[in-house]
Design brief:
6-stranded antiparallel β-barrel, 9-stranded antiparallel sheet
Length: 408
């Protein structure tokens, strides 16, 4: 039913970086000119991480080295375990990847892979089954309930509630979830807040503006290529609802066609991602994402986001901001759609950022996700922020696309 089951079936396969020939971008709609694009620099990412994560230069360098090792360990863990671990996250206090396991043999394999095992009571399969039951119980949505998913660090599940919209139906659902969890003694965390997630809709450079017809403003995610010479970019599915709409760039010229043919937009249980065909005069693909201070960040491939690791987000409304991945594989009820398999971060965002780029690891930045939505707090508000992204690898696999990367 959900994408996470397909992930489990493919767990033993390692993810290879998707590579394609890189080409510069011309934002004008005249004939393409020689490439004027400056060489991408990781400095903007480091500056933003220091600003948004409160790190000194030395702390930022240490953190990035630790996260790079954690990503390598995560790939090794996926290879050596025959089934997904109960949880996996980066712990910044010890600078290591933590992997939740239920048996001693898996703990030994995790140590050999360079991570720290944590023995827990409940397997991933048990947690996923409870999440499935919660989704069935929620049906098409429950007032006040904004989403649910696995709580990896607690070896349980989490249900998110907007206290401003809570009602008797919300309380009834909470009691039903606890009843579902009772036989297996799986912990249930209820997260209450005053924010409800919303989809933030609002050349080809990730994080820059594009406009679907006359419907609003969104952000470019990542340039991609496909079979038969296809060229385009990934963005949010809720930005590409209508088939065969003209897509306009930040300069107002036509980039190409949004959701060409009507089969290139997903918004619902399968995810939140869409595809725009790039065939406008003078427009070319680029591996770049708009970075700090205008400095481009060129992606070198893609990878799956790991909880606890740092991530940077680029969107047309808020620019470049960094934070940490706080949860993965979450279900979100936007009110207009219930979407599975999303990830949460605390990098701030605002309306207009939808479809924008999430990248990680300066020096060799990887594409991680596409901006799906966020809470009501924005970058100018201060306080707690919640932003949500769609993992990019699922969009690439859906339409057999190849990410445009640097150094190809």
């Amino acid at each position: 039913m959900h994408r996470r089951f397909r992930k489990a079936a493919l767990w033993g396969a390692t993810m290879a970086a998707v590579m394609a020939a890189a080409g510069p971008l011309s934002s004008a709609h005249a004939a393409p000119q020689p490439d004027p694009t400056p060489q991408p620099s990781p400095r903007g990412m480091l500056d933003a991480m220091r600003r948004d994560l409160g790190l000194t230069p030395d702390q930022a360098r240490t953190r990035l080295a630790q996260e790079a090792e954690a990503q390598r360990a995560a790939a090794a863990v996926r290879r050596v375990l025959t089934a997904p671990p109960a949880g996996m996250w980066f712990d910044k206090t010890v600078g290591k990847l933590i992997v939740a396991v239920t048996v001693a043999t898996d703990a030994e394999r995790v140590r050999a892979a360079g991570a720290l095992p944590k023995t827990v009571a409940h397997s991933r399969a048990a947690l996923i089954e409870l999440v499935r039951q919660i989704g069935t119980r929620a049906g098409h949505g429950v007032p006040g309930v904004t989403g649910w998913g696995v709580d990896e660090r607690a070896n349980g599940v989490v249900v998110r509630i907007d206290r401003r919209a809570s009602s008797a139906a919300t309380d009834s659902f909470e009691n039903a979830v606890r009843a579902l969890a009772a036989p297996s003694h799986i912990p249930v965390t209820i997260e209450r807040s005053d924010q409800a997630p919303r989809q933030q809709g609002g050349t080809v450079i990730g994080g820059e503006r594009w406009m679907p017809g006359q419907e609003g403003i969104c952000s470019i995610g990542f340039s991609v290529t496909g079979s038969a010479g296809f060229e385009g970019f990934l963005t949010a599915g809720h930005c590409t609802n209508d088939a065969d709409q003209s897509a306009y760039g930040k300069d107002g010229s036509v980039i190409g066609t949004s959701n060409e043919g009507g089969g290139h937009s997903v918004i619902g249980r399968e995810g939140d991602f869409g595809l725009v065909t790039v065939n406008g005069p003078g427009w070319r693909l680029s591996p770049n994402v708009a970075g700090q201070g205008g400095q481009p960040v060129a992606v070198t491939g893609s990878q799956e986001g790991v909880s606890g690791t740092s991530v940077c987000h680029s969107g047309e409304a808020t620019g470049w901001h960094c934070g940490e991945i706080t949860r993965t594989e979450q279900t979100v009820d936007y009110g207009t759609a219930i979407v599975d398999g999303l990830s949460f971060t605390n990098a701030c965002s605002a309306p207009g950022d939808s479809g924008g780029s999430y990248v990680t690891q300066p020096g060799s930045p990887k594409a991680v996700g596409l901006h799906s939505g966020g809470g009501t707090a924005t970058c100018s508000d201060g306080g707690d922020t919640v932003t949500i992204f769609q993992p990019v690898d699922e969009a690439l696999a859906k339409w057999d696309l190849t990410l445009k990367t640097s150094g190809s």
